[in-house]
Amino acid sequence: MLVHSRTGKWATWVVFFLLFLPLFALPLLVILTASFSTHWSGAFPSGPTVENYGAAVRGESLQALTTSLVTALAASVLALTFGSWAALAAAALKKGGKRALDALFMLPVAVPSVVVGLAVLVAFSQPPFLLNGTRWIVILAHTILVTAFAYQSVSAAIVRLDPMYEQAAASLGARPSYVLWRVKLPLLLPSLNAAAGLCFALSMGELSATMMLYPPDWMPLPVQIFTATDRGSLFAGSAVAVVLMGTTLLVLLAVSRIRTKASFR
Amino acid sequence: MPRWVWALPPVAVLALVFLYPLALVVQQSFTADTGEVSFAPYGDVFASEAFREALTTTVWLALGATVGCLVLGFVLALVIAFVPFPGGKAVAKFIDVFLSFPSFLITLALLFIYGSVGMANGVWTGVTGAAEGPFHFLTTPWGVLLAEITYFTPFVMRPLLAAFSQIDTSQLEVASSLGARTWRIVRQVILPEALPALAAGGALVLVMCLNEFGIVLFTGAKGVTTLPMLVYSKAILESDYPAACVVAVVNIAISVGLYGMYRVVSRRVGA
């Protein structure tokens, strides 16, 4: 307790909410409100409508939603596979090797996403790998960008793992593969699950690399929102943005439900 | 079979899909139009006014946003942790949710609030009867700065809240019972404990601000060009790949250098 007087406390809270509400709550509220309006040129929006949502779940917007979901799902699964494989392999290495692998797999976080997009575009537009213009190039870029986060969270979880379990299993004669499959991976399940949620959310909102790469027939939601707002349809764009936020939240919620169940087992 | 063999497949995949493309970008940045190795693209880009302007804009925007995030994040986290109020848990939860949304949504919201026909200007013209409102900063670097501070402050708050939860509150009680005023407790007890988290959070935000693209793109301002924006416009709008690669290499050098520093700092302080 830092402030003891009653007036001091209230003053602190008032300042807190004067900063917090306009900066963080208002933007999300404004997008939500705008998605239900047709016009906004005063203090309050006008022309309440659900028409924006009608457009947001039809035609090209619906296609963008499925595109985003498929991309995020594929990128998360690939990133989790490679990220946790690398993290498990790194944990078995000596200190220098582990540090090198850490640096290598965290590098995509430091490199600007736009540059990752440019690099992938340059490399996979020329033989021997021709992926430009296909959906695979978008999925590939998303995978590269989110693998770092999968690697980081699985790595952190491995450090916290109690080595007693695997030692006990190994001393009872379990082979390394059996220990990995029946002891280590089940213990890592909660953090794998959290990493999956993180990867999915990041991929759903990815715009920078996608803008460099997307083919006309594989346009994810963030690009769709940009093209809508760029041609002036701010209200339709807001509805699509709400769909994006809602879908992300739903998936995160579902993932955390699975996690609670898994940790009770 | 030695253990390092298991590390080979993921490293090989990463090398193919990430390191090889990066190497190609570097190679292309050293290739002149005629196809031979030269520094000509660097000379051209460094000489151009647009590049120098983008570089300064990027750096001062990132520095300004980082300072803003650190100050704002410190104050907000301080209140949540040490002047607890009902619903404080919900606010912390909200911040976690906020982090999972893409950055450009903030700019989209700001368009409604401060845009030329937005809320703030609408209220102003309604009250004063003036022909147009006073808020035109959205398409200037200040609009980008506001959006970046809004979006990245939670990234500072999260490590800070974790660090604050480690502080023994009895230390604060002791300091207070010895007669220390609130500001003195913040300065001499809380701030030293929070420094590692502030350093780590600040470095992370600095790198993310240098790399930010969505916020600048959505602002749609011709006046605000940052390095990532320049990479995009050179490559996609002008199809000038050597120039885009040069800007990309500069951007990588700045960001990776800073990120390396962040890793060293955060490992040293154990955050």
From TrEMBL, chain A:
The keyword Transcription regulation does not apply. PANTHER family: INNER MEMBRANE ABC TRANSPORTER PERMEASE PROTEIN YDCV (PTHR43357). GO terms for cellular component: plasma membrane. The lineage of its organism: Bacteria, Bacillati, Actinomycetota, Actinomycetes, Kitasatosporales. Keywords: Cell inner membrane, Cell membrane, Membrane, Transmembrane, Transmembrane helix, Transport. The chain crosses the membrane at residues 12-36, 69-91, 103-124, 136-159, 192-214, 234-255. It is a multi-pass membrane protein. It comes from the Bacteria. Pfam families: BPD_transp_1. GO terms for biological process: transmembrane transport. This is Phosphonate ABC transporter permease. It is found in: Cell inner membrane; Cell membrane. Residues 65-255 form the ABC transmembrane type-1 domain. The keyword Membrane applies. InterPro entries: MetI-like, MetI-like_sf. Belongs to the binding-protein-dependent transport system permease family.
